[in-house]
Design a protein that fits this description.
10 helices, single chain, 306 residues, Rossmann fold, 6-stranded mixed β-sheet, 4-stranded antiparallel β-sheet, 29% strand, Alpha-Beta Plaits, alpha/beta
């Protein structure tokens, strides 16, 4: 559905994209991950036809982006980070307004089924100006799906939502996949990506540093991590001693909270707690877990290989 090679984009003296490759397969949920400022929005604008790359090639939904005269030619659904609607219109009126080119049956029926799908059927006649951000986001999902596109581009769909709103949006994304859609999700919320994505691409400073299936990425990074909470901030001397212990691979965190990556939980755990005992350090809690997508992201971006 999307095949980009060597995409570059410059704004004056600043190079936002430094030759990135993207490959999105039909029917998958692809997570496009990166910190704010990594180049995600710039890439989204190119992939959706709102901007032109300075160099590189890109095929989206069978179209060569360089030859597309209007973004509508791509026949994709697009949800911006903050979808905008006329505040004096109701949710129902907003979709009627967007659906004036619908030719596959009754517009009224299409509006009704979409509002029901996003859970806004009971708010159909409420003015959008009174909607919460989560409700506007769900209405934006309905608008993006109105013309039944095979490919949907979602820019930070769960950003700034409360936990319930985020869960609602993520469930809608999973339902899109169940309907056979291909979904490209740009996000910096790693836990959301881990919940819904089939494959991920990690962008940092305008370069793609990883593009793999989520299953493969997690399998390649099966590491044990101790999450430790102390009763008071960990002193620099103790932190340095932890890093020097055998089997310690990495230490992240600050103040009272540390995440310690270890080769083997048994031997490294004994060494850690032996140090805490001899140094008379009070540990409030300690939990052993496996590496998450967020852990992998922070490790890869922090390598400074870019």
């Amino acid at each position: 559905m999307i095949e980009a090679r060597g995409l570059q984009k410059r704004f004056g003296n600043f190079q936002a994209l430094k030759g990135i490759d993207i490959n999105v397969k039909k029917g998958e949920i692809y997570g496009f991950l990166g910190h704010n400022g990594a180049g995600k929005s710039t890439t989204m604008n190119i992939l959706t036809g709102f901007s032109k790359a300075d160099a590189g090639s890109c095929i989206v939904n069978g179209w060569d982006i360089a030859k597309v005269a209007h973004p509508g030619d791509l026949h994709l659904g697009y949800l911006p980070e903050e979808p905008k609607f006329y505040p004096w219109m109701t949710a129902q009126e907003s979709l009627y307004y967007l659906g004036n080119l619908w030719t596959q049956g009754s517009v009224e029926k299409r509006v009704e089924e979409l509002l029901q799908w996003v859970g806004l059927d009971k708010a159909a006649k409420r003015k959008v100006g009174g909607f919460s951000r989560g409700m506007r986001q769900r209405l934006g999902m309905a608008a993006a799906l109105f013309y039944d596109p095979d490919l949907l581009m979602l820019d930070e769909p769960s950003s700034a939502l409360d936990p319930e709103g985020r869960s609602d949006v993520l469930n809608l994304i999973l339902d899109l996949k169940a309907r056979g859609k291909t979904v490209f999700v740009s996000t910096h919320i790693l836990s959301d990506a881990e919940r819904v994505c089939d494959r991920v691409g990690i962008l940092s400073q305008g370069q793609m540093i990883i593009e793999k299936s989520l299953e493969t990425l997690l399998a390649e990074n099966v590491q044990s991590i101790y999450d430790i909470v102390f009763n008071k901030p960990c002193e620099p001397e103790i932190l340095a001693r932890i890093k020097q212990l055998p089997g310690i691979q990495e230490v992240n965190g600050k103040n009272e909270r540390l995440s310690v990556w270890v080769e083997t939980p048994e031997s490294s755990g004994k060494a850690l707690f032996s140090l805490f005992g001899t140094a008379d350090i009070m540990v409030q809690s300690c939990a052993l877990r496996r590496a998450t997508l967020e852990d992998i992201f922070l490790e890869e971006v922090g390598k400074g290989v870019l």
